[in-house]
């Protein structure tokens, strides 16, 4: 590799007075030490290219991508265009990695919803989502009434009325209703179904578990090390709740075991608005405090033994202890994706210590990012990955620049008294915390605004006040309490931890009450978000004047943000609600009582933080019990609900929407969207431009990819489709009356 960079450098030197492209290459070659930092960026470009395709390309395309990558890597050995060939090879590698991962996790999906069925299988994951509610993943053994070839491999269930918490490895039975993987709430919105598919899950469902007295186990349980760890986590949670008040105990349990089920929604909202949501989710902050704390503690203990310090590499021993501690915390915290990602980053840094390299550097960050992108390419699409790496990249790049300034600055005289040194240390700590928070907030704010449509401008204040408490009190006491639990001596550290968490809660509540604590922002166009992200990466990864070129994609991002084209009508994927854009430019839902989650997402995506009732009370809709009418940009819209007569409004509507099948009714209406259309294509967005109506569907935006299914009728997956025949018969009888009632698509 050194030969490649040397060749590139010579080529750059020879072309300093050449064409603009050659001069740019010369400038790039002049920063040899920074070129490796762009390896994960090129891989990410290839991965993003794969996931952005509208259809799954044939295998021949990926064979060509592999050949292209190999040819590019070979050609760069003897070419003046080394950097270009390397970039092409890495992009092709990322593209190929996306396909390999897709084939690795490919599994069958449920193509239609079911009625009530009996599901049996083995529990592979458990996450409590309430006092008597859990979200579990079950490896399917049998599903009654459904053809075997239609069974998914794994199902994510929300189960209620728990009679004892399900255990990992347990064989269980449940009466459930199953559904295909969920589709986006709007065209182009986040695809949660794709996320589940890459976890090996092929269906979702809800139901009630059989009680302990009624359960039968024709097949044995499958206990594993995860079963043992789950037992430890449960016992730790019990000890925490025995020592602390309920709300504080729920917070403490979330930080130690990762179980956030008991936390009240109000506290979640306050932490999010105050910019402290990262405290609740176990990620890089917690992992660095736990493993980093063990590193320094081990070094301090080993330093007591001067003979050992002189003879042995105690720093490396401390790094090994930190790696082991981080692994233990990864297990006890439930091993969430964000925690796994944080541990990989931490492992790379401590491995650098073992090889006598700097632990914290952009190079180590690039290595960690490369590993994650190659192992789990789908992580590139997640907000967690983007926020984590942008924040760490921004912090390291900023402190690298500050270090250079400090090295070139004249030495100053500092106070020599104890009081002066203490005051200086305190001032540096506060300034460092504020600076770190500000930098992290800016870099995480980019993906946060795009994915969550919120920014927390007062997050700096909350973090400056709360992070010292979390770093110096909460997490050290959490670690100490966990270590002392086997001895029964955990009460005192848990009490101290609880006092710290009470202060964090009070800070979040105070900041939330301040004006403009949270600002809703509309979803940026994808190209705009991509441009501003690239500008941030360019700014951090290069040095010197070359950084100034980052202003170009930043300016492009601003221009593209002005092209935001918001839909005039949004239709929920099951027809439960419709929103139109009123004369004031804001979305107005037809009702605030149906599809609340989806409607709330619509408002946020539009940069509107109004409550559902407030949004629904805006002027736009005129509604009766089963029919709503509105006008948007001169277009007459009618929304029919179940049981509505359809003959009268047909002649007066330009767009007719119904939550039941229209079949042949209202054929004279220019645009008809009924339950069957929504079942086939998912959520709809309609753009009105004069007399033209442009319709975009979720299915169009998702494309034809392995994680996208073509919905089929329920009868096609049933062993005995009698229920469908009865429903169809009722539908045929209802069509003879004055009102059309839904037979409902058998989906």
Fold and architecture overview:
Helix 14 packs antiparallel against helix 15 (337-354), helix 17 (383-408) packs antiparallel against helix 18 (418-452) and helix 18 crosses helix 19 (459-484). The longest helix is centred in the middle third of the chain and has 35 residues, at 418-452. It is built from 27 helices and 17 strands. With 747 residues, the protein is α+β, with helices and mostly antiparallel strands. Helix content is 52%, strand content 13%. Mean pLDDT is 83; it is low at 1-16 and 723-747. The chain starts with a helix and ends in a 13-residue tail after the last helix. It has a five-stranded mixed β-barrel. The protein has a five-stranded antiparallel β-sheet with strand order 10-9-8-16-17. Strands 11-12-13-14-15 form a five-stranded mixed β-sheet. It folds into five domains: 2-105, no CATH class; 116-223, Beta Barrel (OB fold (Dihydrolipoamide Acetyltransferase, E2P)); 236-518, no CATH class; 526-561, no CATH class; 569-716, no CATH class.
Give structural attributes:
747 residues; disordered C terminus; five-stranded mixed β-barrel; alpha+beta; OB fold (Dihydrolipoamide Acetyltransferase, E2P); single chain
Write out the strand line-up for the largest beta sheet, numbering strands in chain order.
Answer: 1-2-3-5-4
Please give the radius of gyration in angstroms.
Answer: 29 Å
Q: Can you summarize the main beta sheet? A: 5 strands, mixed, barrel
Taking the alpha carbons of the first and last residues, their distance comes to 56 Å
**What average pLDDT do the residues reach?**
83
How many DSSP E strands?
A: 17
Chain oligomer state: single chain
Indicate the proportion of strand residues: 5-15%
Count structural domains: 5
Helix content: 40-55%
Class by SSE composition? alpha+beta
What general outline do the C-alpha atoms trace?
Answer: globular
How many helical elements?
27
């Amino acid at each position: 590799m050194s030969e490649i960079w040397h060749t590139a450098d010579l080529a750059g030197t020879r072309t300093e007075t050449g064409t603009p492209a050659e001069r740019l290459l010369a400038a790039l070659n002049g920063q040899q030490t920074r070129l490796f930092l762009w390896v994960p960026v090129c891989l990410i470009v290839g991965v993003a290219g794969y996931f952005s395709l509208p259809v799954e390309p044939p295998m021949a395309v990926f064979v060509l991508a592999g050949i292209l990558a190999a040819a590019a890597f070979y050609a760069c050995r003897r070419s003046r265009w080394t950097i270009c060939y390397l970039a092409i090879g890495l992009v092709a590698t990322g593209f190929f990695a996306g396909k390999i991962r897709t084939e690795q996790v490919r599994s069958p999906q449920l193509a239609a919803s079911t009625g009530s069925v009996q599901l049996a299988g083995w529990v592979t994951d458990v996450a409590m989502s309430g006092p008597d509610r859990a979200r579990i993943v079950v490896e399917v053994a049998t599903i009654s009434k459904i053809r075997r070839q239609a069974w998914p491999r794994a199902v994510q269930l929300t189960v209620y009325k728990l009679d004892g918490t399900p255990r990992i490895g347990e064989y269980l039975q449940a009466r459930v209703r199953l559904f295909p993987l969920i589709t986006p709430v709007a065209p182009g919105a986040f695809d949660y179904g794709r996320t589940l598919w890459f976890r090996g899950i092929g269906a979702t469902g809800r139901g009630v578990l059989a009680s302990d007295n009624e359960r039968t186990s024709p097949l044995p349980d499958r206990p594993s090390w995860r079963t043992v760890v789950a037992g430890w986590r449960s016992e730790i949670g019990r000890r925490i709740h025995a020592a602390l008040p309920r709300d504080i105990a729920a917070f403490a349990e979330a930080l130690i075991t990762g179980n956030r089920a008991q936390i009240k929604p109000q506290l979640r909202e306050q932490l999010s608005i105050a910019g402290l949501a990262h405290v609740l989710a176990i990620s890089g902050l917690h992992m660095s405090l736990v493993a980093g704390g063990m590193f320094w503690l081990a070094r301090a203990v080993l330093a007591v033994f001067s003979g050992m310090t002189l003879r042995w590499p105690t720093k490396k021993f401390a790094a090994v202890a930190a790696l082991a501690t981080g692994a233990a915390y990864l297990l006890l915290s439930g091993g969430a994706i964000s925690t796994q990602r944080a541990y990989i980053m931490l492992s790379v840094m401590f491995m650098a210590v073992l090889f006598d390299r700097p632990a914290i550097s952009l190079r180590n960050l690039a290595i960690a990012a490369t590993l994650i992108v190659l192992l789990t390419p789908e992580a590139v699409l997640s907000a967690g990955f983007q926020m984590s790496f942008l924040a760490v990249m921004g912090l390291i790049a900023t402190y690298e620049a500050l270090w250079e300034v400090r090295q070139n600055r004249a030495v100053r005289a500092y106070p020599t008294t104890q009081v002066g040194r203490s005051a200086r240390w305190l001032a540096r700590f506060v300034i460092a915390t504020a600076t770190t928070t500000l930098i992290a907030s800016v870099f995480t704010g980019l993906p946060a605004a795009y994915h969550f449509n919120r920014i927390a401008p007062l997050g700096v204040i909350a973090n400056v006040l709360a992070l010292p408490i979390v770093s110096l009190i909460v997490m050290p006491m959490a670690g100490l309490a966990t270590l002392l639990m086997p001895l029964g001596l955990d009460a005192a550290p848990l009490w101290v931890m609880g006092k710290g968490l009470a202060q964090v809660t009070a800070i979040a509540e105070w900041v939330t009450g301040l004006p403009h604590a949270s600002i809703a922002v509309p979803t940026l166009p994808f190209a705009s978000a991509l441009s501003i992200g690239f500008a941030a990466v360019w700014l951090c990864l290069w040095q010197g004047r070359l950084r100034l070129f980052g202003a170009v994609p930043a300016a492009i991002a601003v221009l593209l943000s002005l092209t935001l084209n918001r839909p005039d009508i949004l239709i929920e994927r099951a027809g439960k609600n419709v929103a139109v854009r009123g004369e004031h430019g804001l979305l107005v839902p037809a009702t605030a009582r149906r599809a609340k989650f989806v409607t709330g997402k619509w408002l946020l995506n539009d940069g509107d933080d109004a409550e559902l009732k407030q949004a629904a009370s805006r002027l736009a809709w005129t509604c009766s019990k089963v029919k709503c009418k509105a006008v948007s940009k001169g277009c007459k819209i009618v929304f029919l609900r179940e049981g509505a007569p359809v003959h009268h409004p047909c002649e007066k509507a330009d767009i007719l929407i119904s939550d039941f099948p229209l079949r042949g009714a209202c054929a004279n209406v220019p645009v008809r969207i009924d339950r069957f259309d929504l079942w086939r294509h998912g959520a709809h967005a309609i753009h009105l431009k004069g007399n033209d109506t442009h319709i975009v569907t979720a299915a169009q935006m998702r494309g034809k990819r392995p994680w996208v299914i073509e919905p089929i009728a329920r009868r096609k997956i049933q062993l005995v489709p009698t229920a469908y025949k009865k429903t169809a018969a009722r539908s045929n009888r209802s069509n003879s009356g004055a009102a059309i009632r839904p037979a409902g698509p058998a989906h």
